[in-house]
Design brief:
9-stranded mixed sheet, extended, binds zinc ion, 182 residues, mainly beta
C-alpha cells in the first residue's frame, strides 16, 4: 500500500461474514461514498454528494457477487442552451469479489468484507453524461438564428462535380481477399 494518494477513492466496507456461511445466501446492502472534486470538464458531481448503490450481495463459491444500481447525481451545462442542468445517472452493476481476484475483472475479497469504494468511484466517473441536455428537445438559445440542423456555408462555392464516383462493387469484393501469390 502506498497510501495517502490524492484522489484515492474512499473506503466503503461491506461485511460479508453472514452470507459467507451459506452458499447462495443474500443480503440487501446500500453502500455509499461521499465525493469531492469528481468531474469532467463540463459535468461534475456536486461536492459532498453521495454515490449510492442499492442492491445485494450473494455468496457464491468463489466469493461474493454484488449486484445493484448505482445512483450518481451530477450537474453541468446544457450543451445547446448552456443553462444549468442537473440529473441523476443510474447504472446497473454486477461485480464479483473473490479472494484471488483477476486483474481488471474481479475485485478483492478481504477476509470478511469487501471494499466497494473503488467500484462506486469508477462507476460514477463512467456514468457522467458527456453532453448533457436540459431536455431532449432543447432547441438552444435562439432556434430561429441557430437552427440545430447545420446548413453548409460552402453550398454555393461548388466548382463542378468533384465528388468521387461510386466505387465499383467488384473492387470492394477484392478488398477482402488475401492476394498472396504463394
Ligand atoms: Zn438546453
Amino acid at each position: 500500500m502506498t497510501g495517502g494518494a490524492e484522489g484515492h477513492p474512499p473506503r466503503e466496507l461491506v461485511s460479508v461474514t453472514e452470507i459467507r456461511r451459506h452458499l447462495g445466501s443474500r443480503l440487501a446492502v446500500t453502500p455509499s461514498i461521499e465525493v469531492v472534486g469528481m468531474g469532467l470538464s463540463d459535468v461534475r458531481v456536486p461536492d459532498g454528494s453521495e454515490i449510492v448503490l442499492t442492491g445485494e450481495v450473494e455468496s457464491i463459491s468463489e466469493g461474493v457477487v454484488l449486484t445493484g444500481t448505482v445512483a450518481v447525481p451530477w450537474t453541468g451545462a446544457c450543451r445547446r442552451c448552456l443553462n444549468d442542468v442537473t440529473g441523476v445517472a443510474e447504472v446497473e452493476v454486477r461485480e464479483i469479489y473473490e479472494t484471488d481476484p483477476v486483474e481488471g475483472e474481479t475485485w478483492p475479497l478481504e477476509q470478511d468484507h469487501i471494499d466497494v469504494g473503488p467500484l462506486l468511484h469508477d462507476t460514477a466517473l463512467l456514468a457522467l453524461p458527456l453532453a448533457p441536455l436540459c431536455s431532449d428537445d432543447c432547441a438552444g438559445p435562439a432556434p430561429g438564428l441557430y437552427p440545430t440542423t447545420v446548413v453548409s456555408d460552402d453550398a454555393d462555392l461548388g466548382e463542378g462535380d468533384d465528388a468521387e464516383p461510386p466505387r465499383d462493387p467488384r473492387w470492394a469484393a477484392l478488398d477482402g481477399l488475401d492476394l498472396d501469390e504463394g
